[in-house]
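Give me structure tokens for this 208-residue protein.
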Amino acid sequence: MYVHFFKRGLDLVISILVMPFLLLLTAILAPIIYFEDKGPVFYNAPRVGKNGKEFIMYKFRSMKVNAPDLTMADGSTYNGADDPRMTKIGAFMRRTSLDEFPQFLNVLIGNMSVIGPRPDLKRETELYEDDEGEKLLVKPGITGYAAAYGRNSLPWHDRLKMDVHYVHNISFAFDVKIFFKTIATVFKQEGVYVEQEENADPEKNQSS
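Here you go.
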């Protein structure tokens, strides 16, 4: 009942309430993002959602135009504190998670939820092992169990295990716990960056 009805209702209410703040945030950040390198304000990130369906995830652009993709040794996307691809405003948005706020538009549309596993790139889903693909049984979220309890500091496959645990134990109480833990994690700026920075390898695809 919660997953199929109540959760979607909460998503709609929360995303509608956030819209005025998102508009204000856009008015403040858009000129800063644009004038730093004259690039687009938003980055339309292709991701894989529920049941393997691809969709466009909205973000404020935090990286330089045409920045190459960098990956960790395990195939996950690189996200280090010394990432040369990030703009100055992008580094600030990444630390505070402000770059993720446009995803409330995805929640309003219905291809994301407020709480759920963070969505992966198509190439990352091809590297899933064992039951890790079960994270695709639910809508991806703006934040989730792995995002709240470790963020990017955890090894990728550990995060995937936490995503699968969430799918198997999803409930209103679990979502509330993740929501408030996310606020604390973002406020303390914990786990923003990967720790194994030396394992990053450059690729040629744009990432943001």
